[in-house]
Design goal:
heterodimer, A: alpha+beta, 4-stranded mixed β-sheet, 13 helices, globular, B: alpha+beta, 11 helices, about 15% strand, binds flavin-adenine dinucleotide, flavoprotein (chain A), flavin adenine dinucleotide binding (chain A), oxidoreductase (chain A), Acyl-CoA dehydrogenase family protein (chain A), FAD (chain A)
């Protein structure tokens, strides 16, 4: 056992750091700092730069376009991205459906979907949840019935509703769990379908969340015709793909590198803000205690993640242990937003989305870090709910790890 | 010992509760919050004239109904339950509080105007650099003939867009953070040299940055003693803090009630999610937090008339408890609602937002914990 990075790893760090410094668009930095909702193009421009370099999908096997990095290199990469406050690469294509396609797809499906997923030409949405099926995902009701089209080809006719679909307003394709056999046991009879969102009968409606964002949507399917060749893996065996995907989703969710950056930011903010006694907040014993506790908890998470990475490297896929990372990672992300809001004091209250109104006075109010403090605090409550709520993660550990 | 409400107090509660239930449902409140003005002046008139609640906490000599802090507690709890935006706290509790404690010669007239719903007041006390320290003031009032000239910038003045008047703290002497040299003024918001930048707040309220640029104010704008206003400020802010605790209790009741209702009707895995023990225990913990908060609010409200140190300790301990309880209950309510809790559409998130703002209002948990420690350990000094 040792904690040192090899000289090769250190050289790798220099290389990626230099690449980010030279290639990360300054315009994106401005958008991030303004704290405004990002446009589709904002997400995609960085994605495309990385795709060109061959670095957009660090975990993919080289044969499908991955860079062939070790888990340590991937870890360094995510640290450097966070350090640069880079716009995140959306997980739906790269971390979720991509691995499902290269693991379970046919050669034709791989060829058709993997390259545009890498280049960003397909924006993927995740169509798992339904109004009646959240934590109890297997109770989903969206139906897909097989029929033969006038052209003699086989299709599914899809009817139903998905909800909480993140950024589906930009979506090109959506990967869905649909019920293909209503008479089977609930986890059987589900299939994994890729649906072109421009198909007739697909409607996307916005849901506005607590911080005022349009981040999630309802997606309705009314008699949507989907070619059978868009089904991944066997009919009625979609649950296998679903579970595989969820484990991948969870392992990315710890967000250690970003939380490290978040704590650095809190230190900066606390150095700028003044405490009640007029000294910098960073000297306030109660506040610095909270930062210290957070850092220690993050270190514990980091080393737990490194251990998981090491065992993944040794050939084991992400197992139920990834639930540990999900629970602790999201709790830490939430505590970071709590501290930013706390540090902002009275200036945490002003609300800026869409304000000042047209013709109004455009001067900012309060310090920059305070502007998004409260909306971010509200928004990040989602992390213990989505990706399998933290209660569900604890149930998984109880059952799968502890055998209860 | 008696923790029961008098008949008048029970009536006050019922009157407000039924009025708000009829006229201030969540959809109405949503419309108020997103309207151009951000409040309902006609409701304010109704509070004054139909309900008579604006006078409930003033003595009969001052034209009120003879109640006091407990009446404010009742009003604020009900306002918390309905997420009322209109400025009872700033006008009646803070504005009225300053006037009634100050012995100002025109106090009775001003209060009559508050009770009638004509004067509305916002409290301009915090400054950009001062966090929660009431004496940290760069705003100055300089003697000018018989009156004063006011200069400075006040941060996040809640309710200022709806106010006819401002209560302003300013230095008439001393250095920036000194206890002495603090004075309090009642200023016409439309006086020459007062400018505001109005904006919404995350909990649906409105606030302003208020700038005073050589604002001339008359001699009788001074409330309380010149240069010795800090004890008065602390007393009124303690009263306001106790009132905000009561509002927090109202918010928490709805967070708890809404969560129980939702958990009983939301089905997953073929059963109501209220059947999962982990959620039951969390809702039990919310209940415990709520009950403890009610107790602390009663305690603090009943001790508002004690010595300065006793009062301050009581209020700070209540604010610590309620700040923590609001965070726990708000976060739990969202968590148990799952995705629905994250939506703007459901009321529950709006209670969470108001609760979050109350957590920091007039001092965070850390602020009040520190104040409590100082008062309880440094007494001998
Ligand atoms: C911002 C956001 C983005 C999302 N993005 C997507 C997306 O892109 N695609 C997608 O498909 N979905 C998405 N989701 C949906 C997300 O996966 C679900 O919200 C989540 O699975 C929880 O389901 P639910 O909201 O129906 O809550 P419920 O399942 O109704 O849960 C409510 C509460 O009950 C608890 N609970 C439920 N069952 C149990 C149990 N057995 N034991 C103990 N406690 C339990 C939960 O933990 C939660 O606290 C998103 C959600 C959010 C909030
Ligand atoms: C110091 C001491 C003094 C005592 N004195 C007396 C005495 O004078 N007279 C007397 O009659 N008894 C006495 N007791 C016994 C005491 O009442 C029992 O220990 C108690 O009722 C718990 O029972 P148990 O020890 O069998 O634990 P169990 O009932 O086996 O419980 C074990 C754990 O499971 C939990 N648990 C059990 N059921 C549930 C459930 N439905 N949901 C969730 N969690 C659950 C418990 O909370 C506990 O954490 C004493 C015990 C102690 C430790």
């Amino acid at each position: 056992m040792n904690l040192d990075f090899s000289p090769e790893d250190l050289a790798f760090r220099e290389e990626v750091r230099a690449f980010i410094a030279e290639n990360y668009p300054a315009s994106l930095r401005a958008v991030q700092e303004e704290g405004e909702e990002m446009a589709k193009e904002d997400f995609l421009s960085w994605h495309r730069i990385l795709a060109k370099k061959g670095w957009v999908a660090p975990a993919w096997p080289t044969e499908y376009g991955g860079p062939g990095w070790s888990s340590v290199q991937r870890y360094i990469w995510s640290e450097e991205l966070a350090r640069a406050d880079a716009v995140p690469i959306l997980p739906f294509g790269i971390n979720m459906v991509g691995p499902v396609i290269y693991t379970f797809g046919t050669p034709e499906q791989k060829q058709r979907f993997l390259p545009p997923t890498l280049t960003g030409d397909i924006w993927w949405s995740q169509g798992y949840s339904e109004p009646g099926a959240g934590s109890d995902l297997a109770s989903l009701k969206t139906k897909a019935e097989r029929f033969t089209g006038d052209d003699g080809k086989e299709y599914y006719l899809v009817n139903g509703q998905k909800t909480w679909t993140t950024l589906a307003q930009h979506g090109d394709w959506i990967f869905c769990l649909v019920r293909t056999d209503p008479n089977a046991k609930i986890q059987e009879g589900i299939s994994f379908l890729l649906i072109d969102m421009k198909s007739p009968g697909v409607t996307v409606r916005p849901i506005i969340t607590l911080g005022g964002e349009h981040e999630v949507n309802e997606v309705w399917f009314e008699n949507v015709k989907v070619p059978v060749e868009n089904r991944i893996y066997e009919e009625n065996k979609g649950w296998t793909c679903a579970k595989f995907l969820l484990a991948h989703e969870r392992s990315g969710i710890a967000g250690v590198a970003r939380s490290k950056r978040g704590i650095e930011r809190i230190r900066q903010i606390a150095a700028e803000e003044l405490a009640d006694d007029g000294n910098p907040l960073i000297q306030d014993p109660l506040f610095r205690r909270k930062i210290a506790e957070l850092e220690i908890d993050l270190t514990a998470l980091e080393f737990t993640e490194l251990r998981t990475l090491a065992s993944e490297h040794a050939g084991k896929g992400p197992g139920p242990e990834s639930s540990v990372l999900k629970i602790k990672g999201t709790e830490i992300q939430q505590r970071i937003t709590e501290l930013v809001l706390e540090a902002s004091g009275n200036y945490g209250a002003p609300y800026f989305r869409g304000f000042p109104k047209e013709g109004g006075n455009a001067l900012p109010i309060g310090p920059d870090h305070a502007r998004r403090a409260a909306p971010t605090y509200f928004n990040v409550r989602k992390t213990s709910i989505y990706g399998g709520s933290n209660e569900i993660q604890r149930n998984i550990i109880a059952k799968m790890v502890l055998g209860l | 010992m008696d923790f029961n409400f008098s008949e008048e107090q029970s009536m006050l509660r019922d009157t407000i509760a039924s009025y708000l239930q009829d006229k201030y449902d969540f959809e109405t409140r949503r419309k108020i919050v997103s309207s151009e003005s951000g409040w309902r002046a006609d409701y304010w008139k109704a509070f004054a004239e139909e309900l008579g609640i604006l006078g409930a906490s003033f003595s009969e000599e001052l034209g009120g109904l003879g109640g006091g802090a407990l009446d404010n507690m009742i009003v604020m709890e009900e306002f918390g339950k309905a997420l009322v935006i209109e400025p009872y706290l700033g006008t009646v509790i803070i504005g009225g509080g300053f006037l009634k404690h100050s012995g100002h010669t025109d106090a009775a007239d001003h209060i009559a105007s508050i009770v009638a719903g004509e004067t509305t007041i916002a409290f301009a006390y915090a400054e950009a650099q001062g966090r929660y320290t009431l004496s940290d003031l760069k705003t100055t009032a300089k003697k000018d003939g018989s009156g004063w000239v006011l200069n400075g910038h006040k941060a996040v003045v809640v309710g200022a867009p709806f106010a006819s008047h401002l209560i302003v703290t300013a230095r008439t002497g001393g250095s920036q953070r000194e206890a002495s040299g603090v004075s309090v003024f009642l200023v016409d918001k439309h006086a020459k040299g007062v400018t505001t930048r109005d904006y919404p707040t995350v909990d649906g309220g409105r606030a302003s940055e208020v700038y005073f640029d050589n604002v001339s104010i008359p001699a009788d704008a001074l409330i309380g003693a010149e240069g010795a206003g800090l004890p008065l400020v602390e007393k009124v802010v303690d009263e306001a803090t106790a009132a905000v605790c009561a509002e927090g209790v109202g918010v928490m009741r709805k967070l708890h009630e809404g969560t129980l209702d939702y958990a009983k009707q939301r089905k997953q895995f073929g059963t109501a999610i209220s059947n999962f023990q982990v959620l039951q225990h969390r809702m039990v913990d919310m209940f415990i937090e709520l009950e403890q908060s009610v107790s602390m609010t009663y305690m603090a409200t009943l001790k508002l008339g004690e010595s300065d140190a006793e009062r301050a300790k009581a209020v700070s301990s209540a604010k610590v408890r309620i700040g923590r309880a609001l965070k726990f209950c708000g976060q739990s309510a969202i968590q148990i609602h799952g995705g629905m809790g994250m939506t703007d559409e459901l009321a529950i998130g709006h209670y969470f937002k108001r609760g979050t703002i109350i957590e920091g209002l007039f001092g965070s948990v850390d602020h009040h914990l520190t104040r409590y420690e100082r008062l309880s350990f440094d007494k001998a000094a």
